[in-house]
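New to this. Look over this protein:
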Amino acid sequence: MPAWVETGCHEYGKRMPPELRIQTVEIPLGPRGKSQSSAAAIQAESKGLIKAIGDNDFVVALDVLGKTMTTEKLASNLSNWQMQGRDISLLIGGPDGLSSDCLARANLRWSLSDLTLPHPLVRIILMEQLYRAWTINSNHPYHRA
């Protein structure tokens, strides 16, 4: 990822409280090219993603066909997820999206936008929205700024 993505994600990550520590696990992109189909690349990425998910994790797949939600709804979901006491795995697919296996494993499919967003930007948007949701739940002034 470009340095600006790492910087942005680090900034929001360090703002999160210890009970909402965010850990990023990067899965290598599957091979793509003239002799490789995108389906093969998606499957290669899928194996790495599924391996990184804990058995008891609540899985949220970022998917263009998923449900949209307001920041306030995300805050409510975040609060509910915390009460469950499970780790949350947020899956961001590669350039061609997530495999059907990843989508089937998901407890929730979430669409950030109807727009097509570049993957580096998705990371920062996701981190900022998680931080914003926490500020709503904590009555922190960031959300109203």
Summary: The chain has five helices and three strands. The mean pLDDT is 91. Residues 3-11+39-140 form a domain with the Alpha/beta knot fold (CATH 3.40.1280.10). The first strand starts at residue 58 and ends at 67.
